[in-house]
Amino acid sequence: MRITKRIQDTLAKVKKRYHPIVWVHFWLTMSRCITGFMLYPYLVIYMTEQLGTSPVAAAGAISFPSFVALFFKLWAGNVSDRFGRRPVLLAAPLMQFGVLIGMIAATEVWHFYVLLTLNGLSFNLFLPATSAQIADVVPEEQRTEAYSLDNVAINIGAMLGPLLGIAAYQFNPALIFGAEAAVALFTVVMVYLKIPETLPQKDTESTSATKSKVLLGIGSHLPLYLLILLTVPVYIVEMQMNSTQPLYLQNHFVDYLLVYAILRTVPGILTTVLQMPVTLWSKRWRSTHVVFFSYMLVVGYGLIYGFAPVFWVLLLAELCWALTDMLLFPRLKQIVSLMAEPHVRARYFSLFDISLSLGKMTAPVLGSMVLVQYGGQALFGGLALLLLITGLLQLILISRILAAKAKREQEMSGAVGG
């Protein structure tokens, strides 16, 4: 009884610790990621087996939306900043629901080019509105925790989705589309019932100069663009896991597919279990220290893969990546939320997500070229060197960003006091 009571008390404390909207987004993100990972790993198989499409055309249907999304993200966040979080959070999953119903009826590969592009557009409307809304309702000191909770939900989806997806695909391929369509409809209902509007009151003077701009001015927003640029190499490393890593392991292991499956499962389990403890433990660290340490972990990841491709040592590399995932990405989101004025929060998050799109577009091609021409040592060793350089630059950049913010706050408090 005492143990049960203690568990109940702990769960109650955890529930009260975060804003109710954060918990709604946690469950919605987990549901969306479970069905998303049910769907996307098997889309190429579905198009080749069910539609008779060539593997190249099927792969193109997966890649094309990422290219379109790169340009869409330039203004996607502006929609939420101008019209509110709630309308976007209602409209985007409704759009996705229609797209997924269309996928069930699709009979040609070009249908999937169109539908997957529309699905990507709805996702890129929804995501920055979600991140901005968390920043709207969560105090600065708790935002890293809130974004870490979101990271837990993503990793739960990454673990469960593929397993459920293969079962659904073998039973009836249409189920993988139906499941995600049902979650999209569930999202609409939950947003309608549980999520109010949180867009901060607009300051006419601050918004009038930016509301019509698609791309924020280079001069005043240069730190954001530099942050985006210096984050791209991390995503280039991450994208190797889904592109060149199996090919690299094939040269070192007989059962390379089994090794690959284990190496991809370990970080997901570690992140799901340890994300919140690691986040709470690292709260006392300065953001500059967290970010630089994370980049050095990725340097270690690259060096191990490049120069010590032994299974048990590679598990250590995956631990390095899991810690990077737990420490770096929530902290970067928190830094973006601090940089952005309330009237451009969603736009900042949308633009920052371009770093992921650039990584997706460049990593597979560049990585495979280097791997084929020069080998794994050149690929992963070169990435380690790149991360060392960008980690140092990121340390300097974030130090200046936070110093400038502290100076502005000091000036504002002095003006109020005077």
UniProtKB/TrEMBL annotation:
Its main location: membrane. It is a multi-pass membrane protein. GO terms for molecular function: transmembrane transporter activity. GO terms for cellular component: plasma membrane. It holds the Pfam family MFS_1. Keywords: Cell membrane, Membrane, Transmembrane, Transmembrane helix, Transport. Signal peptide: none annotated. It comes from the Bacteria. Residues 1-402 form the Major facilitator superfamily (MFS) profile domain. InterPro entries: MFS (IPR011701), MFS_dom (IPR020846), MFS_trans_sf (IPR036259), Sugar_transporter_CS (IPR005829). The keyword Transport applies. The chain crosses the membrane at residues 21-43, 55-76, 88-106, 175-193, 214-236, 256-274, 286-304, 378-403. It is found in: Cell membrane. SUPFAM superfamilies: MFS general substrate transporter (SSF103473). PANTHER family: MULTIDRUG RESISTANCE PROTEIN MDTG, PEPTIDE PERMEASE. This is Putative MFS family arabinose efflux permease.
